[in-house]
Amino acid sequence: MIVEVEQLIAEIATLDLEGLRSVWRERYGAPPPLRSTPILRQLLAFRVQAQVMGGLDAETRKALARSGPVQAEGKHLGVGARLTRNWKGREVTVVVEEKGFRWDDQVFASLSAAATAIAGTRWNGPRFFGLRDAA
Fold it and tell me: Among 10, 26, 29, 113, whose CB has the most other CB atoms within 10 angstroms?
């Protein structure tokens, strides 16, 4: 059975997004609404392996439960921190607040939501404000 899983994982590594969705649909029903081929590939490979090998052990599940909720990237800068960027000839500033990120008198739950509102197209907020290197 392990050999079959290894063969399926090798096949998954070669599939495009539609191929991944097709395999997911056949095995598990409706696929998650992802557009990222690498992420869907990892999810599908994990799910296939977990089905055969049992998934995460109890100790790992407990450690993940103890880690607490995920904090929006950028919140670590602290309340009051200001992120500034020149965008299309104008300076834009987002301020970190307790409940999110303020820009233009509106609070956004994530830095990415603020960056998307500023740019008018979908953006990764930490990358938009230079908190991450470009890929």
Answer: 113
Would you tell me how many other CB atoms lie within 10 Å of the CB of residue 49?
16
Element containing residue 39 per DSSP (H, E): helix 37-53
Q: What is the DSSP letter of 77?
A: G
Whole-number pLDDT of residue 71: 77
Write the DSSP symbol of residue 61. Answer: H
**What is the reported pTM?**
0.54
With CA atoms as reference, report the closest residue to 90 among 100, 77, 108, 103: 103
Q: How confident is the model at residue 135 (pLDDT cuts 50, 70, 90)?
A: low
Average pLDDT over the chain, rounded to an integer: 91
CA–CA dist 130, 133 (Å, integer): 7
